[in-house]
Amino acid sequence: MTSTTAVLLPGTASDEVFVRSVFARPLAAAGLALVAPQSRSVQEHFAALDAAYDGEPLVVGGVSLGAHIAAVWAVRNPSRCAGVLAALPAWTGRPDGAPAALAASASAAVVAAEGVHAAVAGVDGWVGDELRRAWPRYGAALPAVLREAAVSEAPTVAELRGLAVPVGVAACTDDPVHPFEVARKWVSALPRAALRTTTLAEVGADREALGRAALDALRNA
C-alpha cells in the first residue's frame, strides 16, 4: 500500500469531528494524512471522495454509512483506491430490516415531529453524547439525511467479492445496531480482508480504539 492519504467519512448524521476523534492519531502514527470531509448527504460523500483524488490512489473508508459509501466508491474506482478502512458496517446490499436502517428511519420520524432533543432523550452513554453534539449541526436537513441513509445501499456480496484492494474491517462485538455478523459477512466475501474487534465500552473510554482496530485489520489484510 503506497498511499499517504486516507479519506474517511462519517456515519449517518455523524460528522467529521467524530471521524477525527477516531482516526486522526492512529492514522498519523501509521504515516497517513487524514482527510475528513464536512460532507453530509450520500451524494456529497461520493463527491468528496472524487474531489480528494489527485492522481495518487487513496485509502478510503469511514464509519457505518461512511464505510458503505467508501466501499462502493472503491468498487467503482479500483485504480484510484489503495485500501479501505471499514468501521462498523451495518448491512450488505439493500438495508431491508437492518437495525441501523430501522433506527435511522424511526429517528427521522421523531425529529420531524418532536425535534432533536426528543429523538435523543433516551440514548444513554457516549453514543447519546455524540448524537446530542452532532445532530443539531444538521439543522432542518436532519430528517432527510436520516431517511436517505435508511434506504441507501451498501456494497453487495458480489461487489465485495470483486474488490481486490486490502480492506480492514472493525466491529464492536456488543453493538446491536452494527451487528458483528455483518462485519464477518463482509470479511468472508472480500478477497483481501481482515477483521479486528473492540467493544462499545472501549470506544466510549477511548474513541481511537475503533480507529486502531480498523488500521490493524488493514495491515493484516
UniProtKB/TrEMBL annotation:
SUPFAM superfamilies assigned: alpha/beta-Hydrolases (SSF53474)
Family matches, as InterPro entries: AB_hydrolase_fold
Protein name (Swiss-Prot/TrEMBL): Thioesterase
Annotated source species: Saccharothrix mutabilis subsp. mutabilis
